[in-house]
Design brief:
about 350 residues; alpha/beta; Rossmann fold; 2 domains; four-stranded parallel β-sheet; binds aspartic acid
């Protein structure tokens, strides 16, 4: 059966081609995609193209852009079997994370991809990234998609989007997902890791629910040896601040300076939720109380983000603050997986 795929172009390096006369990089007209990538015709899929205008460098991504993207998917959801989103690499992991929260009960593949080299230059990684993303988005078995979740495809690897981070600006393998296995690897065959892939919602009557509120009254506080109390205070005293992702050391450790702890405590008492995520990319989760240097954080009510990435933590906070849940519910939700963004501490 020929699947229908919507290819959504948002901007970024991937959409650039070199003008043959001037040598300058210009935005590629995706209406000509079959001319540039004739092998797309070999995929058992009908591909439509949509440009989300204005095209942006992904440095300009923001919550409104994520909501527009989520609404576009809602509008087109019933007409397509899968979606491939072409996006700049710089903030792709943020967008993938935000979309995973905004799209509840997802039962179709949404694959974000981009490239390190523009599509229209020699050796571009964009060609393989687009072709393979489309092939995966169109892959169904027993009438269910192979990967019914928000994914990120790059350099022969398919990742759960909200587990990724960009960690290289030069090599083609620009993304990693240290705390979660790849969902698929592309070689001679596409090898799906079905144990790691989120299944479709069990209740087939559950319809896609698209959330359209994000609250950006959040901040990221990255700790470093020698951080000045004035800096910490400046972030924590931002008017209207609702929540903070605090990037701690190792398994969730922070300076023991009582004045620093007192600043955090004061903010928490004012109602600010502080979530601890580790600066270490892999190997485990925040364990508040494991060392004396994190014990005090637990005492004052800092919340553990376990093995969540900063990208997923900040977008999850925006999402939860945009819902009508209580602060207690928000704290509970930050400590459990909603869309596979963290390993559930309860092992669920
Ligand atoms: N600055 C570009 C962007 O993120 C880089 C890229 O696409 O890789 O939009």
């Amino acid at each position: 059966m020929k699947r229908k795929i919507l290819l959504i172009y948002t901007g970024g390096t991937i959409g650039m081609v070199q003008n043959a006369e001037t040598g300058a990089l210009e935005v590629f007209n995706f209406k000509d995609i079959y001319t540039l990538l004739p092998m797309l015709r070999l995929i058992e899929a009908h591909i439509d193209f949509y440009a989300l205008l204005p095209l942006i460098d992904s440095a300009d991504t923001n919550p409104n852009f994520w909501i527009r993207l989520a609404k576009l998917i809602e509008e087109k959801y019933d007409s397509y079997d899968g979606f491939v989103i072409l996006h700049g690499t710089d903030t792709m992991s943020f967008t993938a994370s935000a979309l995973s929260f905004l799209l509840e009960n997802l039962a179709k593949p949404i694959i974000l991809t981009g490239s390190q080299l523009p599509l229209g230059v020699l050796r571009s990684d964009g060609r393989d990234n687009i072709i393979n993303s489309i092939e995966i988005a169109a892959s169904y078995g027993k009438n269910e998609p192979c990967v019914p979740e928000v994914c990120l495809y790059f350099d022969n690897s398919l990742f759960r989007g909200n587990r990724t981070y960009k960690d290289n600006v030069r090599t083609f393998n620009a993304f990693s997902s240290s705390n979660y296995p790849k969902l698929a690897e592309v070689g001679v065959n596409i090898k799906y890791n079905y144990d790691a892939i989120m299944p479709c919602p069990k209740d087939k009557k559950l319809k896609l629910k698209v959330h359209t509120q994000l609250d950006n009254r959040v901040a990221i506080l990255k700790l470093y040896p020698g951080i000045r109390l004035e800096n910490v205070e400046a972030i924590l005293s931002v008017p209207d601040l609702k929540a903070v992702v605090m990037e701690t050391f190792g398994s969730g450790n922070a300076p023991g300076d009582p004045a620093f702890i007192a600043l955090l405590k004061k903010a928490i008492e004012r109602g600010v939720v502080i979530v601890s995520v580790t600066q270490c990319k892999g190997g485990g989760a925040v364990e508040i109380g494991k060392y004396a240097s994190s014990f005090a954080l637990g005492e004052i009510g800092v919340v553990s983000g376990f093995d969540i990435t900063t990208e997923a933590a900040i977008t999850k906070l925006m999402f939860l603050l945009g819902t009508n849940i209580s602060k207690q519910e928000l704290i509970a939700s930050m400590q459990q997986s909603l869309r596979g963004e963290m390993t559930n501490p309860q092992g669920k």
